[in-house]
Amino acid sequence: MIAIVDYGMGNLFSIYNALVRVSGEPMIVTEPDFSEADGIVVPGVGSFGRCMEQLARFGEALRQELDEGKPVLGICIGMQVLFDESAESPGAQGLAWMPGKVVRLPSGMMVPQMGWNDLRITREIPLLDGISSGDRFYFVHSYHCRPDDRSVLAATVEYGTEVVAVVENDNLAATQFHPEKSGPRGLRILENFVRCVRC
Amino acid sequence: MLARRIIPCLDCDLGVPQGRVVKGIEFKQIRYAGIPWELAARYYEQGADEIVFLDITASHERRTTMTDVIRKTSEEVFVPLTVGGGISSLDAARTAFNAGADKITLNTAALLRPELISEISQAYGNQAVVVAIDAKRRCGHEEGKTVIQLLEGECWFECSIYGGRKFTGIDALAWARRAEELGAGEILLTSMDRDGTYDGFDIPLTDAVSRSLQIPVIASGGCAHPDHMYQVFRHTGASAALAASIFHFNEWTVEGCKSYLAERNIAVRI
Asked: What domains appear along chain A, each with residue ranges and CATH number?
């Protein structure tokens, strides 16, 4: 069973249906209790600050599951909140599970970045099994992550600057793009996550 | 680098059970193409980058709703979904987003009350609001309008509303810029002169609008061959090409169009 954290920021059909499609047995979780889940997805909608406000009450339970080794996957804003802070919401504290901050996409580029960008894989990880550099994924975002520790990087895209697309550190992984909106290759990533959860 | 997007558009008549996809010619005659979510799933399998549903139901009685169409589609289709046609309030937009739409398009309602663009983009983000413009060529020079020089002479573009049934006198280029300022994340630009004609996109119109905006422009109207897509990507700043008939009647697949473009060095998602 894979828990989808529902912190009340919008519809979760896409990620739910995508996990059903890859036999992930999703369940929507509205309370900070993940005891029945084998893996956890933190979807991302809205702004960094609003997301953290709503997500705060799940923080402790999520941290505990993470420490016990349950795989956790953050998506979009669900990736950004893993870091310390964001220029989008000054003063708001992130989960701070990965050191670094979130900054605005460079000026001169269309913001938000919206569309299919091609991945450059910098490190082979199980989540990217079957995915090659050059494969395209669907991005919608105005801010991007700057990890202090570059060893968490797994893939990037070029958008006026290097934009971090995938990070991973043991059982914690996240994508800036939306795998649930990225066609068959996005589903492949979710399938890989489900496989990580089961192994 | 971002790929240029290929977007099948499904004009939906929801006046029959399950709904049906229809295709008008020059905004009038109707041909039938199939059940909305079945066509959406077919185009997804072929590699569509996004699917647009437009509600063009004429009758007041609906036998199905766009919510049903979106819910059903999102079980099978894992690319962004855009919904439009008759969305005239923040509430109506919310219904579409709650059903699973990633973006909504505004047309008539935005021209009648431009603040609606800001209201929805403030609540859901710019990327969720597409302003659709149906533009009609007007020959000659007119004071106060953005005049474009064509081979045939000067012209400007007029916005129409109510699915092309009423003209507003509003300059399409000026309206596109205003929509961007108000918070539109994209412009869906349909040439009324080309729609349903199979003559290809209106290149001067698409070029003029895409050059005067920062936000992406989706070219629409007149696409009947992948070469039309190639021409619009080669000669304008359009980020996406929208087409209907070319796909509905099995003339070309999305995949076929993308191969054609890739062979000519247009960046597309294969």
From this structure: 2-198 (3.40.50.880)
